[in-house]
Design a protein that fits this description.
single chain; about 140 residues; alpha+beta; six-stranded mixed β-sheet; about 20% helix; globular
Length: about 140
């Protein structure tokens, strides 16, 4: 019987501990699943996480940076991502989100990944959440 790779929880130093029993990412073998990230700024000891600002642009850019932090902590990058799921709170944000998303990934050699966009309710003040699946090696 072949030994299975172990699961490793990923929590970058820039992130606060999750409020429930989950991690910001999980790596098993060459697969890294990044849990849904939102536009919270870097962790500040003793302070609750808060959105970086009220605009879709501010929150989207921070959310994408937060996904990137988890990827890097799991020894991956956006080049390794095969699937991105985007959760928006307002259908009216779709076009603006796409502009911001395209700007963020402008330097990637290839299309960033397959993508799904879903409209959801998020906690007060949050406009976007993003998760990603990466395969390395």
């Amino acid at each position: 019987m072949t030994e299975q790779p172990q699961k490793t929880a990923i929590t970058p130093a820039t992130h606060t501990a999750p409020p429930a029993k989950f991690s910001h990412g999980v790596k098993k073998g060459n697969i890294l699943q990044v849990a849904g990230q939102v536009g919270f700024g870097p962790a500040v000891p003793g302070q609750a996480p808060a959105p970086v600002g009220p605009s879709l642009r501010e929150q989207t850019l921070q959310t994408l940076r937060n996904v990137q932090s988890v990827l890097e902590a799991g020894e991956a990058s956006y080049e390794d991502v095969v699937m991105i799921r985007v959760y928006l709170t307002d259908t009216g944000h779709f076009a603006e989100f796409n502009e911001i998303y395209n700007e963020f990934f402008a330097d990637l050699k290839e299309v960033p990944a397959a993508r799904t966009t879903i409209y959801v309710g998020l906690p007060a003040g949050l406009l976007v959440e993003i998760d990603a699946l990466a395969v390395t090696g």
